[in-house]
Amino acid sequence: MLPDCLIHTVLSHIGYKEAARLTILSKSWLQAWLTHPNLEFSVYNFKLIKEVDEILDRYRDKKIPIEKFNLSTFGSDEVVPLIDKWLRIALQNGVNHLEFGYVDFGRTLYPLPHVFTILSAKSLRKLVLKDCDLMQLSLSSGYVTNYCDSLRELCLLGVCLNDNMLQTLVATCPMIVSFTIKHCIGLKKIELRNLQKIKMVSIHIDEKQPIEIQAPTLEHLVCCGLAEKTLMLDIGACQNLKSLKLSSVRISDGFLAQLTSRCQFLESLMLDNIVSKGLEKFKVCESQSLKNLEIRCCSGTTVIDAPNLESLDCVGNEIPVLKTAKTFGPLKHSRLELYSRENISDLWFRKLRKFLFNSNSWSHVTLHFPSCIKIDLENWDPCRGIFAIPQVDVLNVHLIGSLKCPSFADALLWSCHPRKLNLFSTKQMITYFNNLLMYMKNSSHSNPWQYQLKDLRVHKFDLEDLRRQPVEHNERRRIRFSLYWR
Fold first, then answer.
1. pLDDT tens digit string along 248-268?
2. How much is the CA Rg of the chain, to the nearest whole Å?
3. What span, in angstroms and rounded, lies between the C-alpha atoms of 22 and 463?
4. What is the CB-side half-sphere exposure of residue 78 using CA atoms within 13 A?
5. Following DSSP, what letter does each residue of 134-163 receive, concatenated?
6. Which pTM was predicted?
7. Are 86 and 66 in contact (CB under 8 A)?
8. Per-residue pLDDT tens over the stretch 440-453
9. Rounded to an integer, what is the distance from CA 415 to the centroid of its chain?
10. How far apart are CA 380 and CA 396, in angstroms?
């Protein structure tokens, strides 16, 4: 009973294969699928070549509009002569989102000599090229004729091109808003200039390639590389940058301090697996605009001077070392996630408690333990050098083992007082923890440094729907303990 225009709208929001399943509903749905505007073909066997060719011939002959065309194909003598034909049909039928990927088990890239013909299509808004060779295109052969003003997104993934070709592509598409370049071959330097509308740039490099971006309109930058190579990044002209992600790169001493002081509008900074040579390795200083800071797998001391910071996330294998300025105030959101190793001891829990005590209140703390390890508490004086037990809103504990270790639970709850404790573990460990907490609540002989647990409420959540249910212990459930302390 649905009108044809609505059926077309529904099909335009799902994939080609998913739309094919709906053809059994009625002739209207079958007819709508035959004119589906989004085409996705993965041609990885010989049987599909003829089928795809017939479909595209029908679209060409009946001039059926194509909005999105996603073609992934393997290198064979049968399919290579047809690739240019299929791409040409998509362009003739008004495609605005074109993705082409080429797989050759001999690691040969597909030569794409008509890339500027593709770019010149007035309807094209997004172009994604994977494993193509642009080195065989001669820039003096007359392919470059005019600007490609319609393109807004350009993605080059595993493409072979040199510096001159990159500069020509950028100069030909001055109106792009988003540019992604990942693991491309043949570049000695990545230089982006004269992009009048650029908002987002994502760069993934495999070699020590200098990066220079001069784009006053740039707002979001992602840069990923090799931790063994020192990053050479020049974004001094990107004064309107709002978010920056650095991943798997080595930075020089003072790099971050200089960057955060220059980018006066930087609001979000993510550091992922960064290596630095400095003593105080990561300095985020004099940043009045920074609101969100995420630190992942970065060893060493982090110095933070961001008075307007609202959110802080720390993720890694080691308890972080933070130095904050006096103006560092309470945060709206703070999250600490640690993946502990096998050799944790009472010293590890001491360090965790000291970190939580010296820092502002953490809203979420997540701890991953490979097993429930016995903690030596024989010569442990938990009151020495420690005053108040730090408060935590939510403590998430992921525990694999099922060994009953009261000392482990003692050390865990001595390190902080969570308002809510979410336990991800096995049936045996959840049952044990439940009984232990109930004993703590009802015991009148708790240790003076210990928990002073006033009230306990236990809820069970299914990992799939997370709906609250009565507590019946099953495998791999999440148990939430709501704890109330005196």
1. 888 887 788 888 878 889 999
2. 29
3. 31
4. 12
5. -TT--TTSS---S--TT--EEEEES-B--H
6. 0.83
7. no
8. 777 755 554 455 66
9. 31
10. 25
